[in-house]
Every structure is written in structure tokens, then in C-alpha cells.
């Protein structure tokens, strides 16, 4: 597989703001591609196998969709990537056991020197060049898939509204209270004010 600069965008929770951050980064990184990782489960809605948005797409092998014709849908995350200027968008639909294989197959389709990947679980299988973990200071809960990859975090990104100083203070108080260890204990914290600096740094990875 050709070496690409991989920037991972994970999130504490499903509504942390990682898709918004992905789009902001894509606007500042022309020519970069994007990968959306969707991990599904059979009957995960507690009803039938077709009740979830991806249940009917799960199979014995990961499903990879690429290109505008297959991935653009207004309002969906992949559609937002296109609107933000992604050079190409790849959507990997996988089961728990297919995460690593699914990402490998998606990355094999990437032709740009840099790619943004949204998700958490794939970080247990692939090392990113930089990993941003998105958190909302007003909702500092960590879902299991995020907690399992905290040791991969390069930096935290605080989403949402409010004064930077207050949000940073809230996050640092929470981080100290949680007793986070390893890289998560000292990883730098960024906000929207730091986006130009992050884009400049990612540009230098390629």
C-alpha cells in the first residue's frame, strides 16, 4: 500500500462535532481525500436486520464505496465532505471484525498524498500520522470506542461554542479529575482558533 499522510479525526461521542471538523480541515487542505468509517451490527437496533441504516449493507466482506456517484448524498457525512472540497470520498461499512480490513481497502483507493479518516475503532489497527480527538466541553463523556484509543491521541480538539478560555478550563479540570494517563494526559488542546495552525501542520505531513 502506498504511503499516505493519514490524519485521524475521532470523537468522544457520536455528536462531538468530528464531521464539522473534518469539513473545516478539508476546506483548508485542497486535494485531500476523506474516508468515513461506519461500524455496524446485525440487528443493532433491537428489531430486525433491516431496521438500521447500514444493517442491510453488512456482509462477509467490508463494503467500500468511492466516488461522488456512490457516496454523495445531501445531509449525510459523506455528502458534507464533498461539499467541503474533498478530492474523493470513500465510505467503508464494516462489522467489528472487519474494521482493519475495511480501512486497508479504503486507503488502497486513495490517490491523494493526504487523507482524513473519521472514526475511532480503526486506530486499533492503523497508526495515523496525527490523531485529533474531538470533545465537547459541555458533554465530556467517552464512549468505549474512543476510550480504547486514547493512547493514540496526538491532540484534543474542543468543539462547540463559548469562550476558549472557559472551554479549555472545563476540559483541563475534567482531564485531571479523570486521571487520564499516557499521551492523553499531556496532549495539547486546540479549538477553532487554532485551525490555521493545524492545517499548516497537516500540509507539511505530505
Largest sheet: 8 strands, mixed
CATH class identity: Alpha Beta
Shape: globular
Strand-and-helix sequence, N→C?
A: EHEEHHEHEEHEHHEH
- Using the coordinates shown, work out and report the CATH topology: Rossmann fold
Main β-sheet, spatial strand arrangement: 3-4-2-5-1-6-7-8
Poorly predicted regions are 46-52
CATH arch. level architecture:
3-Layer(aba) Sandwich
* Secondary structure category: alpha/beta
Number of helices: 8
Q: Termini, distance in Å?
A: 16 Å
- Count of spatially separate domains: 1
Rg over C-alpha atoms, rounded to the nearest angstrom: 17 Å
What is the share of helical residues? Answer: 25-40%
Strand runs, count: 8
Features:
single chain, 206 residues, alpha/beta, Rossmann fold, 8-stranded mixed beta sheet, 8 helices, 8 strands, 20% strand
Question: Could you walk me through the main structural features you see in this protein, from its secondary elements to its overall organization?
Answer:
With 206 residues, the protein is an alpha/beta fold. It has one domain (5-203): 3-Layer(aba) Sandwich (Rossmann fold), CATH 3.40.50. The chain contains eight helices and eight strands, in the order βαββααβαββαβααβα. It has helices spanning 18-28, 68-71, 77-83, 99-107, 144-147, 164-178, 183-186, 195-203, and strands at 5-11, 33-39, 63-66, 89-94, 114-118, 130-135, 155-158, 189-190. The protein has an eight-stranded mixed sheet with strand order 3-4-2-5-1-6-7-8, sandwiched between helices. Helix 5 links the parallel strand 6 and strand 7. Helix 1 packs parallel to helix 3. The two termini are 16 Å apart. Mean pLDDT is 90; it is low at 46-52.
